[in-house]
Amino acid sequence: xxxxxxxxxxxxxxxxxxxxxxxxxxxxxxxxxxxxxxxxxxxxxxxxxxxxxxxxxxxxxxxxxxxxxxxxxxxxxxxxxxxxxxxxxxxxxxxxxxxxxxxxxxxxxxxxxxxxxxxxxxxxxxxxxxxxxxxxxxxxxxxxxxxxxxxxxxxxxxxxxxxxxxxxxxxxxxxxxxxxxxxxxxxxxxxxxxxxxxxxxxxxxxxxxxxxxxxxxxxxxxxxxxxxxxxxxxxxxxxxxxxxxxxxxxxxxxxxxxxxxxxxxxxxxxxxxxxxxxxxxxxxxxxxxxxxxxxxxxxxxxxxxxxxxxxxxxxxxxxxxxxxxxxxxxxxxxxxxxxxxxxxxxxxxxxxxxxxxxxxxxxxxxxxxxxxxxxxxxxxxxxxxxxxxxxxxxxxxxxxxxxxxxxxxxxxxxxxxxxxxxxxxxxxxxxxxxxxxxxxxxxxxxxxxxxxxxxxxxxxxxxxxxxxxxxxxxxxxxxxxxxxxxxxxxxxxxxxxxxxxxxxxxxxxxxxxxxxxxxxxxxxxxxxxxxxxx
Length: 534
Known about the structure:
Layout: E1 2-7, E2 16-21, E3 24-30, E4 53-55, H1 61-64, H2 67-72, E5 78-82, H3 83-114, H4 125-132, E6 135-138, E7 143-145, E8 150-156, E9 164-172, E10 175-181, E11 204-208, H5 222-236, E12 240-243, H6 249-262, E13 274-277, H7 279-289, H8 298-305, E14 316-319, H9 322-330, E15 336-339, H10 349-356, E16 363-366, H11 375-380, E17 385-388, E18 391-394, E19 398-401, H12 411-419, E20 427-431, H13 435-449, E21 453-454, E22 461-463, E23 468-471, H14 492-509, H15 515-532
């Protein structure tokens, strides 16, 4: 019974934990590191071909984004997750693969002109499609026995449609233990999705602490705030441009705008148009519109039961093609434009900012966190001008920020979640937070609430049966700051080595087979070796 910490340890992205119980080998999440990387991640102690299951908490790329990568390197187990998460991953992983291929193509065009060698994408579309065939969707609350050693259950944690905490019951010889992985714990009173559900028992808890050092602004009603911005902007004859994350935030905004329209909160601009300009957001909105009653909160459920689409309304226009996107800015009528990416550093939103930032009648509305160094952060910080596609654009539009919109629980919400256990767990491991936040929140839970806590670095390993550390590592700083997603080895030779490891796994699985079949298999391998032995 061993837990090894791999990713999102003293960092916010790249969530990944490795669990060994009996003969079962399991990953909990398999996320991509995003942004600037601080610490090196330890290598998985086994080959990807040996992983039996990935238990996936939710669809965000920092939790699911490396699934195609491990598929390309031999993983053929099952990805167990909720129905809604499986639906969202179907679009998000394909979108991620498209981005990987396009970025590699762009880098290779530059490399060719400079006489450098080509690079491989982190993974390809075929890898995303391949791993999606291995998804096994489950319903909230269903108890599923995966093996003689592992039983699991997914519980709604309120962060994103389909997101879950995962309870795992482990049995090894005479020892039985229970571990809970929190996943990303949701903020309360979010539209569409339910509040986090609390759990009652666990021997061990692996818990996120993204906002473990701050509190969100409370009691903010975003509907009248957004209505005011839209009213004032349309009255000036301008456009409301909203950079928004394609999955989750876009749908929340549509929910708010449906309320604004239903309650006739905008005067003089009947049936104003609202454009969603992001192919990913359009597909995700379709998933949110499905009849996923076990994911919705009471208010949304009541709307659906009345036949009302909670994120649909007259004047909603979905833009998919590049031509449709360009035509939005040729239409001079005042409108609302919701587009990705949420921090303005990529995607179609940059085109809309280029066309609207210099216009004093327009508004740009930020409804999410803007990281330091991003275009979105520059605008919030009051930059008088910005560069977009190499062109300097004066900032004359009204810059608005809707505070208190977050999919993550704040410090109080995190404390409420972990305090719901009727008996304190033997140990609480803090992950998925910035370096200082992991340590400070671990100290807070220990000193003020009496929990036995730890904030491990990647590579640390814990014996869940004895309750003792096997390996305790220190954080290894990345020598050179590079985008984290580009730091994984992606060479073709690495894929060849992974294919060889998978072959050994297949050979072991055939032990005890018919001699005739094994002999044929051996001959095929020998023939392949003869061909390539140089």
